[in-house]
Each structure stands twice: as structure tokens, then as C-alpha cells.
Amino acid sequence: MDNKKDIICIGMALVDSIIKGFDPEPISASGYRAASGSLNVGGEAVNEAVAAAKLGMDTGILCTLGEDDAGDMVVGMLDRSGVDTSHVIRSKEHPTPVTTMFVNDDGTRKSITNGSHRYNFHPEQYASVFTSAKAIILGSLFRAPFDDPDIIYSVLKNSKDAGVTIFADTKLPNFKFLKLEDIKKALPLIDFITPNEDEAKYFTGKNEPSEMADVFLLYGIKNVVIKLGGKGCYFNNTEIELSLPALNIDAVDATGAGDCFVAGLASELIRGASIKDALKFANACGAICTTAVGAGTALKDRQQVIELSTRE
């Protein structure tokens, strides 16, 4: 890459089929009703890239998509959002993943994945793409393509050797069930890890945010951010410990909120913000995301986030 990107997002790209207000009572032998259904571009890397671009970051994405209509939909959304799609890999052999999401009235959700989510492309083969960025966001650790210890280590080592800041979001495993111990060689290379509360409990076996953070820190990760949903977020890097409350906002759909949080955190830190200010900004990004159906719908620009994050 000739020009140094602010952020390169690496990971899953897909289409979400979002069903809101599903009624489990059938209306016929094979028929059910829901309040609404919609198709939305998603996937952790896509959500993070779109959010970062909307926040004014020069953003690229490294991901794989099928040569199909769903893939065209993803690329179109990325292009319209200002994300550099020149390193989107299109494959005839593997379809674009489609996830079915059931969203409850309070914004919580459940998702259904399938075999197309397994495809492990090899981002380590494109080191020249991400080693020239200021920061990379792994979306997400423990999900394809970052459910292979060798791929994880190669991407992180190349990035660290090039002086790139590494943000690693996480997801609960769905096909390969790695543990922290399985990737312990790579973990000290991570600058910021950003699990949500359920993920942090799963990977650490602890129940309190401070105890969860201690486990990640013992593995050599430099900064730990635990996203607590409606309770805000917790931060620890052994020198600074912070707990920030959530913003008071009416949630509609939490899809992508964590991804917007990570993009907001990375973008503000790149701009030189303090960790506390960056976390406040990230909290606002996540909150805004929940106010509409779909991960990339509600967040508009950085000024929108500033106004919410500085609101008393």
C-alpha cells in the first residue's frame, strides 16, 4: 500500500438476516410471524471498518467474500461508507456467510451460523496490506480466520514488528474451541483486547471484571477493556483502572454495538485521546449503534458521537 491507512480491519464479512419480534406461536403448520425482517451487511470486520470510516478514519478492510449477490451487497455498503475495498478477496469456492439474527424487544439477540462461517482465509499472506497501517483491528479473536494459532501469531508478529498498534476484539468460539492457553505465544503482542462480559467470563473463568482483567494481563496483554453492555465498560492495564457507566439510551438492537465500541476506541486513541476520553467516546459509539436495527445504521459521524459522549 502506498499510503499509510489509519486502521485496517481483518476478519469476517457477511450478511445478517435480522428478525425482530419473533412470535414462537405458529400461525399454521409451518408458518410463524415476526414484527419485522431485514437484510443488513455485517460481520465484525465490516462493522468495525464502516464505523471507523464514518468516524473520519482512513480505513481499509481485509476479508473474504463469495462471488455472489450477498458479497456484492457487502462490497456496496463498504464502498458507500468510504472503506477501501481494494483488499477484499472474492472466492468462487466459498459463499458469502449469511447469519440469521433473532432480536428481542430489549435489543438482545441470538444468532444462527452455518458452515460458510468456517472458511479460514489466510490474512497472514497479505502482510504488506496491514503492516503499513497505524493500527489493525482483529474482528474477532477466536472466530475465523483468527481461530488458528498459527494465523493469529503470524498476523500479530508481523504487525508488531512493523510498529502497528493491535486491537483484538473477541467472540465466543463457534467451530474451533481455542482457549487462551492455546494462543499464549501471541497474546503478549496484543495492545488492547476488548471482550464483552460473557466472553471474558468464558475465557478467564472469573466473574468480576477486575478478576477477568487480571487473567488477561497475566498472559501479557497490555490493556484490557471489558464491555459490560448496559453497565458500561471496565479498563485495566496494571497502571490505570477505570469503570465507566453506560449512557442512558433506548436500545432497539445491540447487533454490532461492540464492534462500534472498538472502532471508536481505536479511532480516538489514534487521534491522541487519553484512555478515559477514548473509552467515553467508545461507550457513546456503542450506545448509538443500539438505537436502530442493524450494525451500521444509526452511527453517522464523529460529531454525533462527541455530542452524546459529552452530554451531562
Report the CATH superfamily: Ribokinase
How many helices does DSSP assign? 9
CATH architecture: 3-Layer(aba) Sandwich
**Alpha-carbon distance between the termini?**
42 Å
Major sheet size, sense and barrel closure: 9 strands, mixed
| Spans where pLDDT lies below 50 across 5 or more residues | none
Biggest sheet: strand arrangement: 5-4-1-8-9-10-11-12-13
Q: Percent of residues in helical segments?
A: 25-40%
> How many DSSP E strands?
13
CATH topology: UDP-N-acetylmuramoyl-L-alanine:D-glutamate ligase
Rg calc: 18 Å
Shape from CA axes?
Answer: globular
Q: How would you describe this structure to a colleague?
A:
By secondary structure, this protein is α/β, with parallel strands linked by helices. It has one domain: Ribokinase (UDP-N-acetylmuramoyl-L-alanine:D-glutamate ligase, 3-Layer(aba) Sandwich). Helix content is 30%, strand content 22%. It has helices at 44-54, 69-80, 127-130, 149-161, 197-204, 209-218, 257-270, 275-289, 302-309; strands spanning 7-11, 14-20, 36-42, 59-66, 88-91, 98-103, 109-112, 135-141, 165-170, 192-194, 223-227, 233-236, 241-244. Strands 5-4-1-8-9-10-11-12-13 form a 9-stranded mixed β-sheet, sandwiched between helices. Strand 12 and strand 13 (241-244) form a beta hairpin. The longest helix has 15 residues, at 275-289. It is globular and about 60 Å long.
